[in-house]
Amino acid sequence: MTTETIIVPAISIASATKSYGTGTTILKDISLNIAKKEFVSIIGPSGCGKSTLLKLVAGLSPITSGTIAVDGMTPANAREIVSFIFQDATLLPWRTVRQNIVLGLELEGMARDRRTEKVNEVLHLVGLTHVADSYPRQLSGGMKMRVSIARALATRPQVLLLDEPFAALDEMTRDRINEDLLRLRADQGWTSLFVTHSVAEAVFLSTRILVLAPHPGRVAHDIAIDLPFPRNEETRSTPAYEQTVIEISRALRSVSASSVNAGGAAHP
Ligand SMILES: Nc1ncnc2c1ncn2[C@@H]1O[C@H](COP(=O)(O)OP(=O)(O)OP(=O)(O)O)[C@@H](O)[C@H]1O
């Protein structure tokens, strides 16, 4: 008798196609497996379907054909193990930082003592203990985004979906939050699917980058990022990092150029 280990990918996408209503095909025949703990960034020209792919995985929009499995479940059944972080921190202005973070745990029905413990833990993780009782209007953009991250992590997700979460932040804040995100990932080990327009950010964070080509959206390049972990501020000035940014930029330019030739909109 042989012993066989079956490894279920964190996210498995097979021949996924998506159209909104009776409109044109946005994503066509996307197939890929994402292993547990991978950090996968999705880049591509504006409108190529990056956010749409994330919404399909989150179960926020139905797939037109093909299948998507999240830890072996349909996206709708996997909601409990998935957290989503959007560009807009989407905090409730009338609730304090602590009350915003606790929201998901309240909905889960977690006991009050346990909730307090969890919230204190994530506040500490993102360095916001000192503003726990402040309101969102009293925080900087970077702090609001940290609250949003804390809220997403409080439920201990296995899969983290991030849709251009740091696009509105200044470069230094963005770099710092990226470093924090990698530290949190090393500690908690979730699987991430991350949409960004920044090649530098994608290279810094990812174990793998998918470059989508547009009209219809499809995976044109699937590139492993072999830079060693831990990555930190110094990583950004290493020749290996700089070279990888050049390679990924070239891959992105190749799909943007073909979209212009095909009459599509290229991202600047
Ligand atoms: N709810 C919707 N109904 C109809 N069409 C939609 C809907 N959401 C997105 N689309 C269309 O699907 C296409 C892909 O949009 P999507 O937001 O996924 O692209 P994207 O690559 O994330 O773009 P960007 O980089 O500009 O954020 C676009 O043409 C968009 O207009």
UniProtKB/TrEMBL annotation:
Residues 11-239 form the ABC transporter domain. Pfam families: ABC_tran. It comes from the Bacteria. GO terms for molecular function: ATP binding; ATP hydrolysis activity. The keyword Coiled coil does not apply. Keywords: ATP-binding, Nucleotide-binding, Transport. This is NitT/TauT family transport system ATP-binding protein. It comes from Granulicella aggregans. The lineage of its organism: Bacteria, Pseudomonadati, Acidobacteriota, Terriglobia, Terriglobales.
